[in-house]
Amino acid sequence: MKASMTGRNGIPKMRNHAWTIVAVGAFCSACTAMVALALAISPPSRAAGTAASGAPSSGSSTNSNHEPAGLKDAKASDCFACHAIDHKVVGPAYDEVAKRYAGQGDAAVDKLAKKVIEGGSGDWGSVAMTPHADLGEARARTIVEWILSLKPSGVSSAAAKPAAAGPSGKTYTYKTPDGTGVKLDFAVFLPGQQEKVSDEVFTGYEQFNAYCNRCHGDDAVGGAYAAPDLRHSLSGGMTYQQFIDTAMAGREAKGMPSWAGFFTPEQIRDIYEYVKARSVGLVPAGRPPSGQD
Q1: I need a labelling partner for 168 at 20 to 30 A (CA). Which of 14, 53, 114, 211 fits?
Q2: Domain of 151?
Q3: Do 124 and 63 fall into the same domain?
Q4: Which helix (H) or strand (E) holds 193?
């Protein structure tokens, strides 16, 4: 009589099947290697790296141990989604804040820590800063003290590096399918390949159709909840600065959330470039051909 090949609940016995374990292990190792390879060859995004957002790079683990506590707390929060040290993003450059409040001591720390916690607008424009009650007074003060410790440069940050300027400072001229000439401050297509969009535009397409489409419609054609067709907004004169201000601050009265802390400024720039290219007719609806194809 043959011994049963199954144990309790019909589960196969593995006693005499060591080769099965080896085969399964080899298969899992192969799967792990394939996933690792896919991650390794993923195309780089302009959003990669914190330093690109205006936050100084930590560098090696040894250097990160010497970072001021305020800088560490600012990086751990969403501060660098809307601010940079040396140029305006949505909110003012930190060195401009240090310059304005230089020499005011604890009074400035008290005022700014309260503003960080409660949010609000008025001191630097009409775009409201989102509240950060979760930071608590101690961490808010630590961040503010680090900001005020910065040494302002002799040149105005806004003049030195305006946030609304294109990343490269170049101008690109294209013709739409109907023959209309358009000039943009970013490259829509890969060099010498007008049929394939740039990595930034493609990343913008992916981000938009993963998140923004819920209210603004697939491929930026307008959508539900009375959210505007962003192609029309940009064609009507909305600037990049207005675009990123709105994205990062949100519009609470209209039900639009703040995307600060979720998207980096670089990712918002990618989304802007995609929508802008759609608005001028250079990129049609649907998945655009890219360097990944």
Answers
A1: 211
A2: 51-160
A3: yes
A4: strand 193-197
| Residue 185, Cβ density class (10 Å: 0-12 exposed, 13-18 middle, ≥19 buried) | middle
Which residues have C-beta within 8 Å of that of residue 225, sequence separation ≥ 6?
215, 255
If asked whether residues 245 and 275 sit together in one domain, one would say yes
The residue among 139, 160, 181 that closes a domain is 160
Same domain, 192 and 103: no
pTM (predicted TM-score): 0.62
The pLDDT tens digits for 232-261 are 999 999 999 999 999 988 888 888 888 988
Position 269, amino acid:
R
Under DSSP, the state recorded for 32 is H
**Nearest in space to 161 (alpha carbons), one of 240, 103, 101, 89:** 89
Question: How far apart are alpha carbons 156 and 95 in whole angstroms?
Answer: 9
The position carrying tokens 């519009």 is: 251
pLDDT in tens, 18-57: 433 333 344 344 444 433 333 333 334 454 444 445 666 5
Integer Cα distance of 136 and 45 in angstroms: 34
Residues contacting residue 83 through CB under 8 Å, at least 6 positions apart: 54, 89, 90, 91, 92, 93, 94
